[in-house]
Amino acid sequence: MPEILHDFYQIKPTKLGCEVRGVDVKTENRPEVIEKIKQDVAKYRLLIFKDQGVVSGERQVEITKWFGEVHSTHEQHPKSPHPDVFRVSNDPEEGHYGIGRRGWHIGGGFLPIPFYYVLYHMPSVPKKGATCFAPLSDIIQRLPAAKRSDWDRLWMVSESHEGVVHPLIYKHPITKKEVLCFHLGMTSSFIYDYGTDYQRLTTPEETKKIIKSIDEEFVKDGGNILYKHEWEVGDFIMSDNLSVGHEASPESQIPRSEVGLRVLHRTTAKGEVPPSK
Ligand SMILES: [Fe+2]
User: Fold this and answer.
1) Locate the TauD/TfdA-like domain: which residues (predicted)?
2) 7: CA distance to ligand 1 center in Å?
3) Residue 211 lies in a domain
4) Same domain for 241 and 128
5) How many angstroms separate the alpha carbon of residue 221 from the centre of ligand 1?
6) Separation of 169 CA from ligand 1 center, angstroms?
7) pLDDT tens-place string over residues 90-130
8) Is the same domain home to 20 and 116?
9) What stretches of the chain adopt beta strand conformation (E)?
10) What pLDDT, in 10s, does the model give residues 60-96?
11) Based on the domain organization, do 36 and 114 belong to the same domain?
12) How far is the CA of 250 from the centre of ligand 1 (A)?
């Protein structure tokens, strides 16, 4: 696809989102450029800034503040460069190990209000260790009719936060497009027809079945709807977290001795309103 020239930078559409060149996120502070970037994150869902070198934890937190208040819910790792940076690694000495492999999810899908934006940067890129992203509106649009009506009635119950119940399908608060609120690894059950006289909690067997049926919509047809981001040195990703599901690839867990050190820094910006029908 051709590159699109903007006033401030060049963008090139990828399978999901765009690659961005011609802007240095380490030093960029012009309000008009920041505004344009925010608009483009909403429009394209994923902006992948290329050739950024290594961005410090402090600077990543500053950039996250472009999108609102920083909201950190993670555990600290001794090697994290900043309390608001969640540091993930394929070496437990370097960062939290085994993260992002519990199923497709949005960042903070288990929270009362999921993150609106999630930023990702890899200061150390291994030979293999992709992150996979999925366009949520597109997944909803291609649902078979029966599944669509079933999902319309479903609400997820958070495993970690008591009383948190989210509609599976709802309208994105900013773009108004239909998206999913979900975390396939942190859902204790679902409720059918929540808030009505007919509401009903799913049995453990049903819950498992529903989780499987959601997962199937991501991986069917060889996962051809997915965008697998193979990290390159200097990549800095800004995501509209509510529009894209994600999951770490199985290769992200290959040990350092085989593929080199993988270090991912994730920061998160607070949401404003809970998902609602
Ligand atoms: Fe995640």
Assistant:
1) 12-251
2) 32
3) yes
4) yes
5) 23
6) 19
7) 999 999 999 988 999 999 999 999 999 999 999 999 999 99
8) yes
9) 4-5, 10-13, 18-21, 46-49, 86-89, 117-124, 131-135, 154-158, 165-167, 169-171, 178-180, 187-192, 200-201, 227-229, 236-240, 244-248, 263-269
10) 999 999 999 999 988 899 999 999 999 999 999 999 9
11) yes
12) 14
Is residue 2 scored above 60 in pLDDT? no
**Which range marks the domain in which residue 245 is found?**
4-91+110-134+229-269
Calculate mean pLDDT across residues 246-269. 96
H-only helix segments in 17-144 = 31-44, 57-64, 136-141
Indicate whether 96 belongs to any domain: no
Q: How far is the CA of 51 from the centre of ligand 1 (A)?
A: 23
Residues 41, 118 share a domain: yes
Q: Count structural domains, the chain.
A: 2
* 104 Cα to the center of ligand 1, angstroms: 8
CA–CA gap between residue 150 and residue 172 (Å, rounded): 20
Task: Give the Å distance between the CA of 106 and the centre of ligand 1.
Answer: 6
How far does the centroid of ligand 1 lie from the alpha carbon of residue 196, in Å? 32
The reply to whether 276 falls in a domain is no
Q: Is residue 6's pLDDT more than 80?
A: no
- 101, part of any domain: no
The token pair that represents 114 in the structure block: 């999921």
From the CA of 246, how far away is ligand 1's center (Å)? 6
